[in-house]
Amino acid sequence: MSGMTLEYWQITYVLAVFIGLLIGWISNPWFGAAFIWIFVIVVEALSFQKKKRIEKVRAGTQGASRA
Amino acid sequence: MIELVALAALIASFYVAWNIGSNNTGNAMGTAVGANVLSYRRAITLMVIFIPLGAALEGYKVMKPVGTQIIIGNNPFSVLPQVAAAAMVSAGIWVTIQTKRGYPVSVHQAIIGALVGAGLAMGMFPKVVTAQVNWLRLVKIVGAWALTPFTAAFFAFLIYRIFEVPIRRVKAPEKLNLIFGLSVVMSGCYVAYTMGANDVGTAMGAAYAVSSGLNIANIVEKLALLGAIGVAIGSLTYSRRTLETVGSGIMPLGPLTAFAAQLGAALTVHMFTQFGFPVSTTEAIIGGITGVGLIGGMAGIGRRKLRDIVMAWISTPTVSLILTFSLTSLILLV
Q: Residue B309: in which H helix or E strand, if any?
């Protein structure tokens, strides 16, 4: 059970959230919130794509080794 | 001086928001992760999206000076903002300890306990500030707290029983599990949204009481954003233990059991809200899970864990009360 050991994605999001706060405080709270949403959604979409690609490659190598 | 006090209140409020995120993320996403519908990472990502959304769209509506319902008096926390900050920190400390132990507790209850402690201490110094605890209101609220887990258990039990029979006749259970899984995730997102809309207001109450005197543009919206970020950071950094307790600590969950527990909890909270009682989502969700667990007798329920959680619920407002009483007395004496 890990309590406070943070993974890479968690640290990235914490930073993004703080940057969102800064933007929100300096300009408009809405911009800050929008920054967080866009950042998180883009990162998740990219990691999803990467996962898919890895799965595809893995399936390919498995198929090849079977053949 | 006022800037310094405002900064202290701001930090204290942010700390409470962090506590809400770290301890109460399990309420929103615990069942979905426990039932293996979502991974921990996906659950937290949804939290980070939906908490600021709730805060931005509705967070400013519930922003009100802390303790207006519990403490009767001439706006005591605006007169003594340092007491408000002390109450917030006292409430936060015990919640952090419970989070470290992995027990889901109610931050709201910790705050109410702290406010009562502050009210009692302020009542002893009538020359400095006029404040009294609204005992009648407090008794009603505590009564609702005691009823919450039982009501949620009852509803969850009932919902499970209602769905159980037709499910046995369904020919494609995988599809049905998908539907239940999806509804658990959607209701989790909804709870995250309400955490942003509602709990952020609770957390930032002390900061709001102080900062209303300062001349800052868009202060309510900015405080809502700050609170939302506090909750999101709590959720990102320290929510795993309580989430695991809710998801798998009491009993193993599946899509239907998770759905029944969550719907039972939601119905309970909504019902009490209609009567004007602030109840704890934490107690409702734990009650809901226990109610579903009762279907198979007590055998499937982690009784020791449940007992420890109930002890944590009782100790949370009590310890906050004692701590804030001592701190407030110290502040007023010095």
A: helix B303-333
